[in-house]
Design brief:
By secondary structure, this protein is α/β, with parallel strands linked by helices. It has one domain: ATPase, nucleotide binding domain (Nucleotidyltransferase, domain 5). Helix content is about 35%, strand content about 40%. The chain has three helices and five strands, in the order βββαβαβα. Strands 3-2-1-4-5 form a five-stranded mixed beta sheet. A hairpin with a 4-residue loop joins strand 2 and strand 3. The radius of gyration is 14 Å and the shape is globular. The model has no long low-confidence stretch (mean pLDDT about 85).
Length: about 100
Amino acid sequence: MKENTINVFIGLDVSLRSVAMCVLSAEGDLIEETNLDCEVKAISDHARSKGYSVERIGFEAGTMNQALFHGLTAEGFDVVCMESRQVSAAMSAMRNEAGNQ
């Protein structure tokens, strides 16, 4: 492992031809936002070229995302597909919990 490796979480917003990538530190700080081609190689090459130690890659479940899920998993990444209604419910619960403190 490189000395300057940064542990990150990556969120992908997937469309037909491109992917918007958001990279967050383990503490939740924004590290990078970029657009890439919607290809496994483009995503994995970019993450590796930056020296990131990727904890997990997440994106919304969808019919176009199966190839990304399997491809990124085969590249050695821990990948999770999230169903949008579940993510929305979890985020609402987090906001309500934070407001009750």
